[in-house]
Amino acid sequence: MEIRKLIERIKERPDLQEVVYHHYIPPKPPSFGDPERPLREEVTRALRSMGIGKLYSHQAKGIDLIREGKNIVVMTPTASGKSLIYNIPVMEAILEDPSSRAIYIFPLKGLEQDQLKALGGFAREIPLEGLSAIYDGDTTQYRRKKIRESPPNILLTNPDMIHLALNPFHEKWRDFFRGLKFVIVDEIHTYRGIFGSHVAQIMRRLRRICNHYGSNPQFIACSATIANPKELAERLTGLPFEVISKSGAPAGGRHFLFLNPFISPYTVATKLFITCVRSGFKTIAFTKARKITELIHRWVRDGAPDIGGRISSYRAGFLPSERREIEQRLFRGELEGVISTSALELGVDIGGLDVCILVGYPGTISSTWQRSGRVGRHGQEALIVMIALNDALDQYFMRHPEEFFRRPSEAAVLNPENPFILKIHLTCAAAEIYLREDDGIYNVPGLKPLLEELEREERLRRGRRGDIWFSRRRYPQRLTGIREIGETYTILSDTGPIGESSGPRVLYELYPGAIYLHHGRQYIVTGLDREKRRVLCRETDVDYYTQPLSTEETGIDSVVEEKAVKGVTVSFGNLKVKETVHGYVKRHIYTQELLSRHPLDLPPAVFTTTGVWMKIPLKLEEGMDPAGTLHAMEHAMIATLPLFALCDRSDLGGVSYPFNPELGCPAIFIYDGHEGGAGLTKRGYEVMEEWLATTLKLVRGCACERGCPSCVQDPRCGNLNTPLDKAGAVMVLEGWIKGKLDLSG
Predict the structure, then answer these.
(1) What is the mean pLDDT of residues 385-400?
(2) CB 350 within 8 A of CB 344
(3) Whole-number Å distance between alpha carbons of 544 and 560
(4) What is the 3-state secondary structure (H, E, C) of 190-230?
(5) Contact assessment for residue 359 and residue 287, using Cβ atoms and an 8 Å cutoff
(6) Which of 331, 376, 592, 657 can pair with 252 through a Cys bridge, CB separation 3.0 to 4.6 Å?
(7) CB burial class (10 A; 0-12, 13-18, 19+) of residue 3?
């Protein structure tokens, strides 16, 4: 069957309606190019052995810039051959000087395996012993020792290993660092938020070590489509970059269908998945949760046993060997369908898929393009179906589908100046090579307040002459996770540790009575030991989930920037946030029905972060609820900020005040939900007018009367979405955007 006939069948089936939009992107022919200087003969032979006779125009341009010594970031679509842009110059450098070294950094182990396989094509034609090796958490101790003693030309690893194994033990890698000429940072868009802020400091520590051994490697980054590739690469590394964003790679035609079903979207996804596989199309379905992944997998097997042996689920929590086996079966064509979480979003090559089913809007435009790029990689026509959930952004694009294709991708943001993260890595840097006034990477004179704090906390010790700093611990890196901030809590079940959680969020997510999901299993929290930083739980099987009830308070530490937006004062700066979880509710998993309420007596979580706040000159109209109006605006603004910054609404927090005593007027505060801030609300401050316009469009465009999850309700609201005044929110947003808010109110 052709894709177009499949689309006709979908449109005709009443049980798969409602199709609200069909968009077609026509195929794109290739554009070829040649580097200014011909490739070495050995490299040309290797490319021919891999079936590559010509280079695309963006590949040729990238190779030229790298040969000129530039740091570059390549932002082209999936399957556009980005890896050749760095593999070719790396191979040329190794052929010219066999002592040349390169580090390839990937966020996922599957990508390391993929690249190792790609390098095998060069290794067959360039017979260098020990050309490449993977060095990660799965590498045995014996193998690690061998790699350190005889480093390969190309080391494939991840940020965690650089943080824990390379930087701290750089003396054991001295020859490798002396010859290091290239640092490749793949999937750079994944290094955002808190994780990206940590990785930014790891990159600076890596550069310090390179300087120590006399090397100055070029940085080459690859990214999915984002709004700010140059800015992200520069903030991540502290170096200048040039961007390549015009792709010469061909692309097959792609059909997009937007479905807004009347019945359960998961039922529709299951039926559609079965239809596609039975029709002979290799299909991938992306879900937003592990539990939904496993449920759809089970429903497909139960409803269509004839295809049960040809499909699989795929998610985090599987053993590495299980994930590799599924990837290989997909690549070999043995599997015809897979249901996955975001774990298969990144560029692991899984062969020629035809249909991508998005069970819910992935949360960002960038992720949507990444997931849709999983299909049609061999030039065939492909189909992407987005099935809407009852969520604000899902429904926003169902009401305005054409805007999805007009809207640019979001910005990936991070905060290298986060003081909490910076202090952690200054301590690590001082343990690796002591800090001095004329440090080549860190501005030590400008960091003296933080260094003095670290001295008072007995994490750093100053030298006798006062111009150098040492770490008081030998290996502080071992105390530092790079995914979160704050003390780590261990989650323990009857059988032992099952996970970890960061301190700032533990009271919000792992209070006594909370249901915790891990590897598709349910655990109920039975105790919280704050002194030993342990969460105690036991496995259970219940038909409900839990939601915390909380109150939030904000205090302004300092104003960093301030501006007038249509007559309203908007500020960005540092906030002190106090979140208190005072209870929780149980809701039915499938119906979301409120089952019961339960009080809690927990201490507040207090943290400092960055945020944006608005002094709202609110004039009361007849029937307007001021608290409900501002609360609805707060929720809607949190829902739409992910259209501008790569994040999830769970990364943000907010509180609204009918009267804020600190400001002396009504106000809305929206803040980064992480200690020290991750740069998310800074992005909102920068695009404030567009953010407001999109928020109004979301709220005003929803057909509900009083507010629903598609506009002003927030599923994580600690006040159970009360009070909310949708009409008041529309009135205030319209008045603000028109510059007609009553400033005397």
Answers:
(1) 95
(2) yes
(3) 43
(4) HCCHHHHHHHHHHHHHHHHHHHHCCCCCEEEEEECCCCCHH
(5) yes
(6) 376
(7) buried
Instruction: Give alpha helix (H) positions in 97-228.
Output: 109-125, 141-149, 159-161, 174-178, 193-212
Distance CA 523, CA 521 (A): 7
Write down the pTM of the prediction.
Answer: 0.90
Q: Which residues contact 245 (CB under 8 A, 6 or more apart)?
A: 74, 75, 76, 229
The first and second tokens of residue 568, run together, are 């309203």
Q: Which fold has domain 3-27+260-272+282-305+315-321+334-406?
A: Rossmann fold (3.40.50)
Please state which architecture CATH assigns to domain 36-244. 3-Layer(aba) Sandwich (3.40)
Q: What are phi and psi of 548, to 5 degrees?
A: -75, 150
Cβ neighbours for 104, distance < 8 A, ≥ 6 positions apart: 112, 115, 154, 155, 156, 157, 184, 186
Whole-Å CA distances, 224 to 108, 351, 366, 531: 15, 19, 7, 42
Domain residue ranges of the chain, discontinuous segments joined by +: 3-27+260-272+282-305+315-321+334-406, 36-244, 419-479, 488-542, 552-737
Q: State the chain's mean pLDDT as an integer.
A: 91
* Cβ(44)–Cβ(310) below 8 Å: no
User: Could you read off the pLDDT of 12-34 as tens digits, one per residue?
Assistant: 988 876 889 999 999 999 999 99
Which stretch of DSSP H or E encloses residue 299? helix 290-303
What tokens were used for 485? 């901030």
> Could you identify the residue written with the tokens 């960038």?
366
User: What residue type is 318 in one-letter code?
Assistant: F
- Spatial strand order of the sheet with 496-502 comes to 496-502, 488-493, 534-540, 521-529, 515-518
Query: Could you give the angle at which helices 726-737 and 688-701 cross, rounded to 10 degrees?
Result: 140
pLDDT tens per residue across span 202-258: 999 999 999 999 999 999 999 988 999 999 999 999 999 999 999 999 999 999 999
The closest of 416, 466, 419, 471 to 441, measured between CA atoms, is: 416
Cβ proximity of 613 and 669 under 8 Å:
yes
DSSP for residue 424: H
> How far is residue 565's CA from residue 570's CA, in Å, rounded to a whole number?
7
